[in-house]
Structure formats: C-alpha cells, structure tokens
Write a structure and sequence with these properties.
Radius of gyration: 19 Å
Mean pLDDT: 85
Strand order of the largest sheet: 2-11-10-9-8
Order of helices and strands: HEEEEEEEEHEEHHEEEE
Number of helices: 4
Distance between the termini: 57 Å
Length: 283
C-alpha cells in the first residue's frame, strides 16, 4: 500500500526515483549553500556573490528548491521584445577598489544581474555587468512548439504580432487559451553555444490581469508577456510551458514543467524568493 502522505504515485515511476534523489539533493543544497556563503565572504567584493532577493514563478512540485528568476520584458517602438538588463555602473568598495555592478530599481525592486548567477550561468560572459548585448529576445532552435518550428529557423527577433492568437492558442497539452509560449534566447549573440541563456516566454491574458494588481509585474511585464530564465533550479535542465504530454501525469500540463525530474513552476504565481548567488569568476 502506498503511504497516503507520499505525493508521488507508485505507477508514475517518479516515486521511486525522487525518493532516491531528494535526500541527496537536500544534502547537496546544504553543501552548495554553505560553499556559497564561504565564497561570498572570501571572494573579492564586486564579483556578485551572496544572498539575493528576486522574483520568479513559484515552484509547485518536484525536487527543485526554488523559483526560476524572472526576466523583465520591454517592447521597442517597432514591436520587438527585449529582455531588460539592469544598468551597469561603477562603485567604490570598502577597500578603495572601483568595480562594475549591474542593478536597477524596477517597480520598487532592486533588479540585479546576480539574479542569474546559478547553474554555471555566472561564468557566462553575457551576464557580466557591463557585457554589451542588444538585449533582444530571439527564437531558439529547435523548439518544443510546432508553431515556432514551422515559422522560424531560429535567431529571428521576437515580435508582438507573432502572438496575436495568445488568447485562444492551444496545442493539446493542458487547457487552451492560457497563453502562447515560445522558446527563445537572450543576450546570446556571438557567444559559444554553452553560454546561451535559454528563456521561456509566454504571452497570456492572465499575466495582463496580474500586472494590474502588482507593482512589480506592472514594471516587469508588458502586454501580457512574461519571461523566465529557463534553468531548472534543481539540476539546471531546461523546462518548458505547455510543451510535454507527460506533464499531465504530474498535474503540470498548465505549468512550466521539467522533463528531467518532474519539477513544475506556475507562471501565474510570481513570488519573491532568495538564494545565495555564486560569485562571478575574476576577470
């Protein structure tokens, strides 16, 4: 008999697997957290390590320990989407050195490049505070979405008009009309493939409604577009919204779902969380 307190059904094959990894993941999290504290305490100021408060879609299930970080979205005068990068500026440290940091007040929140310093992303040249990129969101290839693969080869800039049917779009995964998703990249031009920043983008009427009630979402979303760095906070896999049929088995058909270990994130429940960001490597 399955223990009633066990949320992973035996027939899903998830129960056995997750029971094996949750303990080790928890211990790994303790070790990583401790290492992060040591690194942030001993590394040179300005390398961007330490405790960080951020916003992202709430983790609802699976072994992932926290939300994935949100990327604020803007739209230019021609209708193309950009991910907002915080303002780079020079500051003087306590020991008299001048270092470059990237942070901006957005909707009453300190939005910083340190939001993305986990899963090895902190080593990517495109997250250095003063890295020069045009910040446009571009289509990634291949994509888990047929509509995207049939229309774009990859690397084209994302435009508002591509999502005109966002209020009715569906793909037989979960409910229709929740929003239209795309797999895109950000700040990933002229970098090695391993340094690409994968992004989950969705345009949804629910995001529009949420933005009317939240100062942060009003400032960080535009015309119903929500963007998230698609790096699962468990083992850094790339999850997707309404993309995989097996998400139904775990109640995640209408959520951002990671096929690797069945973590799920609710894009319609953006929450404030904190974590220990890894320091960037020295220049």
């Amino acid at each position: 008999m399955t223990d009633a307190s066990d949320k992973y059904p035996t027939e899903s094959e998830r129960r056995r697997f997750v029971k094996g990894i949750v303990g080790s993941a928890t211990l790994a999290g303790v070790g990583t957290g401790a290492a992060g504290v040591v690194n942030s305490a001993t590394s040179a100021p300005g390398e961007g390590g330490g405790s960080v408060a951020y916003f992202g879609p709430r983790n609802t299930d699976g072994p992932a320990p926290r939300a994935m970080p949100q990327i604020p979205v803007g739209i230019d005068s021609e209708g193309y989407l950009k991910g907002v990068w915080p303002e780079a500026k020079e500051v003087e440290t306590d020991d008299g050195r001048v270092v470059t940091v990237a942070e901006t007040d957005l909707g009453g929140v300190t939005y910083s490049s340190t939001w993305f310093q986990y899963c090895g992303v902190e080593t990517n040249p495109n997250v250095r505070p003063d890295a020069d990129h045009d910040d446009y969101l571009r289509y990634g290839s291949p994509s888990p979405y047929d509509w995207q693969n049939e229309t774009f080869d990859g690397d084209e800039k994302v435009h508002v008009e591509h999502f005109d049917d966002y209020e009715s779009w569906g793909n037989e995964v979960g409910r229709d009309g929740l929003g239209k998703p795309a797999k895109v990249t950000w700040r990933s031009q002229e970098v090695e493939p391993r340094d690409t920043l994968p992004v989950q983008l969705v345009r949804s009427p629910r995001v529009e409604a949420m933005a009317e009630e939240s100062e942060w979402l009003s400032a960080s979303t535009e015309r119903g577009f929500l963007a998230v760095l698609a790096k699962c906070t468990h083992f850094c896999c790339v999850p997707a919204f309404k993309a995989y049929e097996d998400s139904r088995k775990f109640g995640a058909a209408d959520q951002i779902y990671c096929q690797c270990h069945q973590s799920a994130y609710d894009p319609f429940d953006v929450v404030k969380r904190s974590f220990v960001a890894r320091p960037r490597p020295p220049e």
